[in-house]
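Quick check before the chapter quiz. The format below is the same one you will see on the exam, so make sure you can read both the input and the output lines.
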Amino acid sequence: MILWFTLVQVAVAIAAGLFCAAVGLSGRRPSDWSVGALAIVELLLVAQIVIAIVSPLAGNPPTGDLLEFWVYLVSAALLPIGAVLWALMERSRWSTVILGVAAMAIAVMVWRMHVIWTVQVA
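Here is the expected output.
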């Protein structure tokens, strides 16, 4: 993983999470803005999948458990999809809060993926 890209992903996910949670707690239903915030997070996760495939070929192999990394990455990539589907099916203010919670969970998962990739010592 690339440190600056990880930091961008974490910052965007936290910003999207705080935005969606604040909007949801203020009583607003899911909108293009809240769903779009999760779409940006998903786009960055897809880019991370590409980076994770290319990095070992470019001389940046993981130092941790590769299976654990990929489970985190695939789970994180599926989380916004599930949250958006939930928000579109149950159009309430709480589904907007769920979008925020999902984005915050993704921020934690991305940081954990970075730790697995770089810090683990066998």
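If your answer matched, good. The helical segments are 3-25, 32-54, 66-89, 93-118.
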